[in-house]
Structures are given as structure tokens and as C-alpha cells.
Fold this protein.
Amino acid sequence: MFEAIAFYTFSILVIGMFGIVVFSKNALYSMSALAGGMIFISGFFFLLDAEFLGVVQIVVYTGAIMAVYGFGMMFFDTTRDIKENIKFKKIIYTLALLSAIFTIFILMAPVYSVRVEALYPAIKDVGNIQMVGLLLFTKYLVPFELAAIMLLVAMIAGIVLVKVKMEETPTNIEVAKGGK
Amino acid sequence: MITLTHYLVLSGILFSLGIVGVLRRKNLLMLFFSTEILLNAVNIGFTAVSKYYGDLSGQIFSFFIIAIAASEVAVGLGLLVLWYKRSGTVDLDSLQMMKG
Amino acid sequence: MEKYLFVALFAPLVGSLFSLLFTAKEKNTITAIVTSALLLLSFVSSLTLLVSIHDGLTLHVKMMDWISAGNLNLPFGFIVDNVSVIMMVTVTLVSTVVNVYSMGYMGHDKGYNRFFTYISAFVFSMLILVMSDNFVGLFIGWEGVGLCSYLLIGFWYEKESASWAGNEAFIMNRVADLGMLMGLFLIYWQFGTFEYDKVFAHVGSLNPAIVTSIGLLLFIGAMGKSAQFPFHTWLADAMEGPTPVSALIHAATMVTAGVYLVIRASALFSLIPEVGHIIATLGAFVAVFAASMALVNRDLKRIIAYSTLSQLGYMFVAAGLGAYWIALFHLMTHAFFKSLLFLGAGNIMHAMDDELDIKKMGGLFGIMPYTATLMAVASVALCGVYPFAGFFSKDMILAAAFNGGNFYIWFALFIGAGMTAFYSFRLIMLVFFGDKVHKKLGFHPHETYPFVLWALLPLGILSTVAGFFEKPFEEFVTEILSKYEITIPHATELGLIFLTSAFVILVIVATIYKYNKGGFSKQLENMPIYLLLKNQYYIPKIYEEVIFKPYYRLSTFAWKQIDVKIIDFIVDLIAKTLYILGQKSRKMQSGNLSDMLRWMVVGIVALLALAIFYRPGM
């Protein structure tokens, strides 16, 4: 009973938040709604006994990613709303709906037709965080390390890209060379 | 009783919301927000399947997706800043260089 | 023993591949030396095999599985038995001699290295043909020698006539090979296998009509390769190639492949005597027909080429009448004296700066006595004068023809023998004796290199003495080939031999006498029969009018009407459609990210729909 109440509450909240993200004209509202939505999603993770993921969701998304977006927003002129003349609205909604239905269908089909066997079943009396750690450092060690390298690369790329001065952008350098 | 189907339907709804955002927003920053929604929708699906089948692989995948999202933001935002410096706008319609 | 087999087979291939490395380079004597050495090695191995097979051994080697698909299973197998070992020895011996000879003959040619590559490749293909234990291997070798023959006829490809002759030989052989290929299909259809052993073991239980068609189809292939009427025109034109090639391929080895095929498939052909009769009749016809063309020809090499044709006719008579061992024996002796004849002709050409008209020669005996002697020996052997090689094999064929009661075949061969004697000695007399016409024309002939003459010596000796091996040869070969009993009384046989020999010697003496007196008058050349023979019975002309020209018109029609108007149109239509499609869909590439994303989602939806609704096999 508690689970049902929690699920529906969080569902409504998340859908509402993300609705604001998608439909709001103001970028600042969108960002705030996104941050809220992220936190509410972590609620689902707790509901699903994935405490570690829930914590990571809050820390990484709301703590790190939203902070980066915040800095980005400061950089841009957010007060000036961008005029969005959207064509083919019906097409967009149809496409979105269709793709969602198809995706769900495809996800559901094997679940209901074939009994999926657990490859790495959860061990009883072992906490979720321990299990995740166990898996991450045994079976998924290589992807884990690769993800670490990827994050490093992305970080360096982000710093370098932002640091480049206007007149030194790759295109400008080429134009300057070609011109003279 | 909340079943896997509930979670998957929720995941689908969020996914379609994300796609609507991707398709209709013209602000590049909003495009990034929408991709975050897409990724989160998938995360919920993975975690739910993981829970209902007692297999932790789903959670691990969600974990990696979060890592990917973080990298994407770092690089994407860097590129966006660069673009803003050059053009002074984050309007998507200003990006028309590849017109065939 | 197996290693001798592989050495004999692959030594020429190694030589060919080795000299292949030098084909684009300047003349390099090492190619000639290496290929000669390897051919000699192959010859020695073949000889070793001959000795051990004589002691009662038969080698049957399965080298590897070649094609294994479904029901079709083709092993790459080789068999060395009494028949194939004879062919191996003949082929490798003649090719070794020819290769050494070519070192002198081709000495100044710019395609020196290329020549030896081709020769060795030819020998390899010929050995495959001879040694294969199944029809497909034989066919591979068959096509291989065809290819090498094509390459060697067109060796001087910058000459229009040479490349034309090469094409003619190749295309005519392909036409005949179609028959052979159909025969092979029929064999596979009936027996489910290509291996000689299995095919011949079951051939007796087959419907005679089918055996007859298999025999006929195989014989069509043999006709093409052995240049029997009506496929004979290519052989005379093949003389455009270098003379050693004519000696090796178009006299001694490749053209006898057809005879070899009939001998190899003797188990099949002996079941169908009526086809054998057709073969013998055709052989007898060609023997006279080709000899008659040789009577008046003035081209040194063409005379010998027609003589080859005529002798092939003799072989087919023997093979057709069931006297397989006699056919094989004549094949072997013929290889010796005919290649000797050709190589002697090569010496003359070398001396006369590639002049071929025998009327422009004369009196060369004083200048090149060794060549003249060798040529004379070869000619006498060809005519069949005792005790030279041709006497034994040829008289056996005549006896076989008489024995079978086919008197008209015997008579044709008898006349053919007389013609042979005439044209051989006409050639000898015109080239080596009589007036020195060449002096007026400004030629300065000279004898060729000594080592070339030494290389010819084995052939000269064999042409002289090979006939005395008749009895051992018969015993050796009939171990696997059927025996042939001469049933006519011995006195009759002796009488026939005496009659033929007397006739031949008479013709020779008459020819020598006549040409010593100055030859025939010029008026003879205006007689219709002379013109008919000179123009090869107008057969090339008929071919041109009846086959070439309509075919050319058909091809032109196909090109102008069908290819340009229909096929090109369709191809252009496809291109145009794509172009228009591209023009229309260009608008998709607006460069706007939103539009691109929209298309991307459309694609995703389409793919998802495909994944959900597309169920193959439902």
C-alpha cells in the first residue's frame, strides 16, 4: 500500500516536473524543474531497493550536473527568451508517442514471453551497496575503468573547450591562415 | 500492487516527454535538458527490471548511464559555450552551416 | 615412389613460376637453364616411374580433396599407370629437348623469359591432363594446355596474324570443349562421379544410347583439341607461333590429347563400336584430306602442320578401331619424328631469316648438313620406311584397318601414305637440293649452334630405333589396355606391309627423280584441283562466309539494338531514378538540427516498427 502511494506520488511529481522542463518558455524554470525531477527520480531508486543508485543520482545529477548547467546558464544571456516557432506540432507528438509505445512494447515482449533468468542474482543478507561494489570490481571492472577514463577525458575536453579564446577557435585559425 | 509494467509505463511516458522536448525546443540548452530526461527515463526502466528479476546488472547499467550523462554534459556544455562565444546565441536555428 | 610423381608433376610448375619472375626483365639465360634443368628432372622422374611401373607397380595418389560440396566430391588425384607413364615420358622428353633447343632458337627474342614461362606452364598442364585420375582433372589440364597454346600461338602478339591465329585456336577449342563439357555433365549425371575407375566399372550396365552420346560428346572435345575435321583450320594457322612451340604443342603433345582421351576412355569407347567406326572413318578422311593439302602448300611449317593433321587421323583410325595400343604407339613415335621435323624446320627458318616459302630455298644441304640429315631421318620415319619408327606404328594401323574389314579405310590410309611420302620428299628436295634460289634472293643461311643440334640428337636416334620397341611396348601397355588381335593370315599381313612399303618407296624415288629433273611445270598450278588444294578446299573461306560474317552481323545487331537500346536504357533509367530521388530528398538536408532530429526519430520509429511487426517465416 505504501509502495503504491509512493509510486503514484513520485510519478505525478516527476511527470509534472519534466513537463515543465519541456514546455516552459523560461530556461531558469526549466532548469529548476529538472533539478527537482532528478531528486524525485531518486525516490524511485530507493523504492526499488537500489539505495546506492539513488544516492548517486542525487549527488551526480543534482549536485554536479545541475551545478554545471547552472554555471552554463550564468554564462548565457538567459533573460532573453528564444523565440521558438515550432512547426509540425502534431507530427512531433505522434512521433514521440509512437516511439514510446514501441519502446515499451519491445521492452515488455521478452519479459512476458520468455522467463528471463537472472545472470547475477542478488545475494540475500548482502546490502545493495556491497553487491554493486562486488559486481563493479569483478565482472564490470573493465567497463568501470573505461568509464573512469571517459569521465577524465570529458573533463579535460570541457575545460579546454571553454578555455579557448574567441579568436583562437579552430575555424578562425584556419580562416586566418587561408586569408593571409 | 506495483508491478514491473507500472515502472515501464512510467519510463515510457518520461521517454516520450523527452523526445517531445528534443523535437520542439529550439534552445540548445533545453535540448540538453531533454536528453537528460531521456537518459533518466531509461535508468528507471533498467533499475525496475533489475529489481523484479533480482539481477543487479540493470543497476550497473544505470550507473554507467549516469557516468555517460556526466561526460556528455561536460563536453556538450563546453561546445555550447564555444558556440555562444562565436555566434552570441544558443538558438538552434542559427546552426545552419550544413545546409545541403 | 610418390615423391617421383610429385617431382615429375611439379618441377615444371616450379620452373614456370621461377621464370615468371623475370618476364618483364631483359633476356636472362638463367630462366632457360633453370626451366631446362627442371624439365630434365621431370623427365628423369618420369623415367624412374616408367621403370618401376614396368616392374608391376601402379601409383594412385589422392593429393587432397579439391571440391566437396553437397553430393559433389572431387578429389585431386593422380594416377600413374602404363598408359599415362608413356605419355609422361614422351611429353617430358620432347619438352626438355624443345626447351634446350629454344635456348638457341629464341636467343634474340625480347620475350625470351616469357617464352620459357609459358613452355613450363604448358608442360605442367599437360602432365595434369595426363596424370589425372578423373575427368575433371583431365579437363583442367585440357583447358590449361589450351590456354598455354593460345598464349604461345599469340606469342608475337604484336603481329596481327599471330594474335588472330591465337584467338582462332582458342575459340575453336572452346566450341569443341562445349561438347566435351556436356559429355562430362552426362557422365556425372549417370555415374555421380568423375573418377575413371568408378565410371569405367559401371559403364557396362548403362543404356547403350547414353553411352553412345557420352562417347560422341567426348569425341567432339577430342576433335577440337586434335584438330580433326571440321575443327582443323586452327592447327595450320597456329604455325604463327614460334617453331619450338609448333614442335612441342602442335605436333608432339597437346594435339595428341584428343587421342589420349579416346585411349584413356577405351573402356567406354570399346562398348560402342559404331562410334569407334565413326571415329575411324573421320580419321581416315582427315588423313587423306590433310595430306592432300600438304601436297601443294609452299609454306614450310604448314606442310608439316598438315602432315601432323594427317598423322592424327591415322591415330584416330587406330583408336576408333579398338587398337588402342597401336594408337598410343603411333602417338609416341610420331611425337619423336614430328617434333624433330619441326625443330629442323626451325633451324632452316633461323638460317633463312624466318623465310617460310620452300620455293625460295634449295641447295641448303651443303650449308647445313646436320640439319638436313636429321630432317631426312624424320621424313623417312614419317613416311614409314623400314627400319625407322614410323614403319612399325603406321603399318600396324594399316593392318588394323585391313583386319577390321574396313577396306575403304585401309585404302584411304594407303593413299595417304603415298601422299605423305610425296610431300615429305618434295619438302626435302626443294629445301635441301636443287637450285640455290635463296642466293638470288639475297639470303645468307648458316648452320645453327652445335648445342641445338646435340639437343636434337636424342629425337633423331629415337625416330630411328623407337620402332624396335614394338613388342615390349605392346606387352607393357596392354596390361591395362585391351589387346588387339590381328586375325588376318600372316602372309596377307606381310603382303600388305610389303605393298605399302613398296608403294611408299616408289613414291619417294619418283619424287626425288622428278624434283632432281626440275620439278613440275608451272602450268600445273592453274589446274582447278591445284587451286582447290592450295586454298585448303576453300574451307576457311566457307567458314568466313557461313559463320563469321553472319555472327558478326548478329553481334552488331545485339550491340546496336539490344545492348544500347534496351540494356543501356535500363541501366540509365536506374541511374536517372536515383538522381531524381537525390534531387528530391536533398531538401531533407536543411542543415537545421531540429529537422535532423525529427528525421532521426522518424528513423527510430520505423526501425522499431520493423523490429516489432516484421517476423520472418511467419
